Amino acid sequence: MHPSTKPRRFVAPAGSAAASDDRADSADKLLLLSSAICNNEDLGPFIRKAFSSGKPETLLHHLRHFSRSKESEIEEVCRAHYQDFILAVDDLKSLLSDVDSLKSSLSDSNSSLQSVAGPLLSSLDDFLEARVVSQNVNLALQSLATCIRLIEVCSRSNYHLSNNNLYMALKCLDCIETEFLDKIHSSTLKRMLEKKIPEIQAHIERKVSKDFGDWLVEIRVVSRNLGHLAIGQASSARQLEEDLRMKQRQAEEQTRLSLRDCVYALREEDEEHDNNRNVLSNDSNSNFDLTPLYRAYHINQTLGLEDRFKQYYFENRKLQLTSDFQVSSMTPFLESHQTFFARIAGFFIVEDRVLRTGGGLISKLEVENLWETAVSKMCSVLEDQFSRMQTASYFLLIKDYVSLLGVALRRYGYPVDALLDVLSKHRDKYHELLLSDCRRQIIEALAADKFEQMLMKKEYEYSMNVLSFQLQTSDIVPAFPYVAPFSSTVPDCCRIARSFVEDSVSFMSYGGQLDFYDAVKKYLDRLLSEVLDDALFQLINTPVHGVSQAMQMAANMAAMERACRFFFRHAAQLSGIPLRMVERGRRQFPLSRARDAAEDMLSGLLKAKVDGFMTLIENVNWMADEPPQSGNEYLNEVIIYLETLVSTAQQILPAQVLKRVLQNVLSHISEKIVGFLLGDSVKRFNVNAIMGIDVDIRLLESFADNQAPIFPDGDVNQLKTSLAESRQLINLLLSNHPENFLNPVIRERSYNTLDYRKVVTISEKLRDSSDRLFGTFGTRGAKQNPKKKSLDALIKRLKDVS
Asked: Does the keyword Transport apply (predicted)?
């Protein structure tokens, strides 16, 4: 098909060249309008301008002109593509016939499909309806199953709540929230659960808080009892250890038993110690229940309040500890110190258990901070109480309890060095108080003593007063009644000193120390040398004393010398020091001043008594015609007194003390004899008188020899040496060669105690029998005695030397 040709439309050209200026302006506007239309710009400004200028016709004219100019362009485009357009129209016509055939075919197919699909669609509708019903039934069954499980969980929750099993009830609530709450389709049930679950959780939290509060109240009582129990166990353990050490020391010192027996005894003690330790360990776990605390902790963990509960627990326990620090000013600390320290000990025993088994409820750092605070407070309280304390026994009681507190808590790993440092700091003050108490007791004991020999009627009295302090001189038990050589002062002072040693060791043994023997020995030295020695010395220096009382004092000092050795051995035993080490370092007798004063006082009284007998020396005939055969009267009295004295003194005085006393008395007698010859009361004497004095000295020497059963030979010779001055003087006066006195060798050997001035004075008084005041006239012309001549020469030489 060929399209018909259409006539071409020609647009008349614009006006001629002679157009006016208005037409030129119109052409410019047409150009601008065309440019805007070609650029798809907004024509609104042109339209507003045309209407505002009142010339819309011009705008219409321009638009028509533009339209006619574009029509020509369209015609040119159509003329260029008309062949293609004709072909396309042909294709569309052929396509239209195909579409008509397709349409009829589709109509036939639709009719066939409608006839076939009708019953199927009916079945499909029935199926869809049945499936919806099935889904609804399944959903209902699932909801019922969920509700049944939910009801079971709720029932278990109620059951746990009724049985106060709060943690399990809380776990049931958590299960409801996580597993059932989102699956419940019933809005009413869901709202009910959302309301009740927080209420039940709040109820559980209140219940747990109340139970925890009750536990906080109860644990204070439990802590106090637990502290008492732990400190009591520490005391029992210390006693067991001390008993074991005592057994060991006895086994070491007991040489009469075989080695096998000693080992058997130690093993038996070890088994007993282990059994007691097991008993103590079992008792330590009683009445100590942390279940309420851990239940509250776990429940708060489940509620998500773990950190808050930790802080709450720590603050409450810290407040309890601060409350335990309070020391009542109305009650003496001696009465309240055990409760004070027991509360603190129990508190930290509980905290140690919580730290080890609480699963992080409290940290180690927090426990350490609490312990540092407690140690600081306890040290402050001890410093204050010790500074005001004036009684040693109170001091020791508190120290013992503090040291036991340290032992008990050291087992749990708590450092107690600061507490022990406080005890060490007040060691000197305690011993000063202890020395003061002992001084008072010793003065009272000395004042109550009658200084009479102690009578013991029963064996237990002997054991208590003699064997307990190792005062016996023999291992043989005497017959009863037994009269001891000492008075009641000795066992009384021994008991005081032994108590001092035991109290000192008890104070020094804090902290498990075993190297404190030197310190105990130092304080024991002070007790003996400063307190006991001074008290005895002052008592001895009192003016009223008889010989029997003085002799008893000297005997007491001898017994105290043995007792002092016991004190140091006892201190070594209690300090764990072997006795052989103590025996090696023999010490000077600490009561030597009192002992010397007692012996000097006894010697002085005996000398005074002897002086009464020595006054009879004035009755001696110094110009006797014949020497006396049995000694002078004064000496016979002295010998009788000395023999009586020895027979009495040897019953109570040790041999060495009696020897020293007799030495002093004999030396005094010798000095009195020499002094009497030297004095003005004797103007002259003859050889017969000197021979009488020689007999007197021989009697004294014989008295010394008669003491051989009491003293060894060396001691008897020392007694004779006490008479050396008078013996050497008499020997010189009776010597046939008195000039030998001038020989240094002979003088040193035979006359070493003589003073040459005394020799000169006494020798000048020696006269021959012919020189008697009323001598016969027949003897005046007799030849001078060579002995007298030699003596005169000696006197002259000695005078020349002087």
From this structure: yes
